[in-house]
Please model this.
Amino acid sequence: MNTATLLVFSFVALVAIATPGPTVLLALANGSRFGVRRSLPGMLGAVASDFVLVGAVALGLGALLAASEFWFSVLKWAGAAYLAWLGIRLLRSQGGLDLSRQEGEVPSGATPRAIFAKSFLVAVTNPKGYLFCSALMPQFIDPGAAQWPQYAAIGIVFASLDFSVMLAYAVIGARAVKLLRQRAVLWLDRCCGGALLALAGSLAFYRRSAN
Model:
């Protein structure tokens, strides 16, 4: 894989990643609720899922999902149910920001492990990611060269772009809260919750034949 090929892949991946999806919406919500620093574990969870996704594509899992209605449905419904659960929780929240909380105090249910797990599970149970990357990534792989180093390079670029985009969304969420205070968190929760529910619905109706 040469530099030009990697640059083209970076551009295509950036467009796909920057389009609002479940993980970037979580980054936005986490940034508004907990601040950028406390949102970092969620970004790392999404990055970890990126490497799982790239590894799965390299091993042919994307092709398996494209061929097997059963396993595609299992992953699809698990992902849709989890997204719907997160969306409902955000819709029912009363705003996660407590302006009286002391600096460094961790909000209830917002441990680094919990924030990491949410983003990781959202990304790793989304079959669209596997199918999309299965269609995209092999086009940038040179079949005449060693496969794993190329997939490793693609994985690093993909994860780096993903982290950068999520960081930007978290900063936007945190800045919105500083400008609008606690009510901003409530409305961001509502917007992100509604968007996650919409994504859960679209995933529930998503079919392999759409690819």
